[in-house]
Amino acid sequence: MKNFGENDTIVAISTPPGEGGIGIIRISGENSGIVASKLFKCAKKDLTVENFESHKVVYGKIVDEKGNVIDEALCIAMWAPNSYTKENVVEIQSHGGALVVRRILELALQNGARMAEPGEFTKRAFLNGRLDLSQAQSVMDIIKARTDASLRMAAGHLQGKFSDEIKAMRHDILEVIAHLEASIDFPEDDIEDVAKDEASAKVRSIKNRIEEMLSTFNTGRILRDGLVTAIIGKPNVGKSSLLNTLLREDRAIVTDIPGTTRDSLEEYANIGGVPLKIIDTAGIRETEDKVEQIGVEKSMSYVQKADLILALFDTSSDLTKEDEEIINLLQGKEGIVLLTKNDLSCVLDIEDLQKRLQGNFKYMQISTFNNDGIKELEQEIVNRVYSGTVKQAEGVFVNNVRQANALKEAQKYLEDCLNTIEMDMAEDFIVIDIRSAWEKLGEITGDTVDEDIIDQIFSQFCIGK
């Protein structure tokens, strides 16, 4: 981020674009009060923003450089270090029209502030020690959370539950390093073997803790980003009806005319706290319609990249040529086979289907007409996502690739450390490996991370946060 680190004052609109009841303009930096006082005039004429009590709301008016009133507003000063960034922060709450909010922003820029870059407020909170890097990343996770479980995980990270686990392991590693270095510095005390034995036991314990944390990564990633779920089947098998049922709203058009869905629809559904990113694909069949052909090709591609495949087969009819194409497409894969139209007489030879479709599939019968089997399907999805992890512990789940990679590298260094101990090598070599693990864990909290990585992380934030 260019210019960051200087004692400048930054400003941004912190509410979403568009019209709303309230618009918030956030100013942060040493001169926040001075900048705000030039555009916000309170009802008490002898009171300026620089003299506001911290965290007290004050009513006033926004005026331009000519003294013209732009809007009525509320102003809150939060003086350092008791603010989000641990700097002087002033927030102005105006009416939420796009024009008035933009005008207030322009006035702040004219009076000495500069435009904040993406994530710069949170980056300042991190650099000023209010948040560690894991907590800072969780800010965007809270904003983007789509289910209660997603929110619990993000809130747990923000409260430091995940960071506390990392810091505890780093503390234990430092103890091991201290004991090993003591045996190096005082060889006459004959503590070498004892130090190595203690180091081996502690390193194994830390390695097991990392392994337990890594086992939560798949669940954490899904809670954060959503479970990419592809609904696959021939035309009129009930794909759009299933989408509408899971969404609990009529999102997709449902008719008995084949080819109604000619492109893929993407929607999020909340299934037992799991955010499902559902892709309702075009029915797979041969068609002369070029638009529908593209939709069919996209349907086939989604099978390759989906986290979960829901393959639909109509129990009220025999297997068709289109079904055969889907069977061939799904060979060797895994997911859930949904036997649809369970409310009608069963004609499909289910045992024959199971013989033909080779892979790891669970078979379930459903009917979107009377919702038969839908609750069981939803519970199966939840079980697959959590896969034995404790739902109450979302706050310590690993939820992004950066965290997972750092943990894997730390685990590798700990394995190298154990091998070094087993080979009865000198303590100096053991310390090298275990210190490398300590540094890798520090990358998660930001204690040992490069500035380029910090910049890259905060560049993904929205402006104003």
From TrEMBL:
Pfam families: MMR_HSR1, MnmE_helical, TrmE_N. Its EC number is 3.6.-.-. GTP binds at residues 236-241, 255-261, 280-283. GO terms for cellular component: cytosol. It is found in: Cytoplasm. It comes from the Bacteria. K(+) binds at residues 236, 255, 257, 260. GO terms for molecular function: GTP binding; GTPase activity; identical protein binding; metal ion binding. (6S)-5-formyl-5,6,7,8-tetrahydrofolate binds at residues 26, 91, 130, 465. Binds 1 potassium ion per subunit. The keyword tRNA processing applies. The keyword Acetylation does not apply. Its cofactor is K(+). Residues 226-386 form the TrmE-type G domain. Homodimer. Heterotetramer of two MnmE and two MnmG subunits. Exhibits a very high intrinsic GTPase hydrolysis rate. Involved in the addition of a carboxymethylaminomethyl (cmnm) group at the wobble position (U34) of certain tRNAs, forming tRNA-cmnm(5)s(2)U34. This is tRNA modification GTPase MnmE.
